Give the backbone structure.
Amino acid sequence: MPPSQKIFIPLGPSHLSPPPTRTPTNPPSLPENNPEVFTNLVHTLGVSPNLHFIDIYSLSEPSLLAAIPRPVYGLIFICPGSSFHRARDAENDAMAVYEGKGDKPMWFKQTIGNACGLIALLHAVCNGGAKRFIIEGSELDRLVKEAKPLGVEERARLLYDSEVLEMAHMQAARLGDSEAPTPEEFCPLHFIAFVKGEDGHLWELNGGMKGPVDRGVLGEREDALSERALEMGVKTFLDKGGDGEGDVRFSIVALVGTGDGEES
């Protein structure tokens, strides 16, 4: 990346300890996420108020999973960089550089510093069933339509040059529970989106990798939080990204509808 690279204020803080007001089910050992901040950002860009992000507090407790509205259109998995690199570096090194276009899936290469949260949000709302919640004529609708025919580098430049994205991101980054860090502070967290695409496949979308990763086919009734999707996606981080003692610090937010059944 160039020395003059654009750098955003991170959506998450530069540390891994949430403030003491966080709930007991999201203890200080987890990276902070803030679904209200994520929701505010996508609504500002032009996603219907009938779509929002919520915390996922457990991947195994039936009562907590039962409380999650379905379908889950996408997950954003947040973990320290060390866990990400242990789980994905070998695979990424072996990947061919992606040169695709179009929107199946819509994938964005990240060239903006500290913008992995923004890129994950875009991946979550611009793919699969969530796309129908993008309001016609909105800033996000215009951006997606402009991005669709572009190649990887041209699409990355489109995001890089977007003042709308920059202003919306800056506004959202200052809404979090913690004091917002400066753009110069390095954000040690990785944000990875898992979405069920229009093709029925689970896609792992991360602008820091060489391209989108197809994790396999999901059944018609299986969403991004289904057991099969978790086994193909999120749980591979838990298996491979541990610190040597099986520990992976992480948090997850889910993209869900309000239940109103209307896009806008």
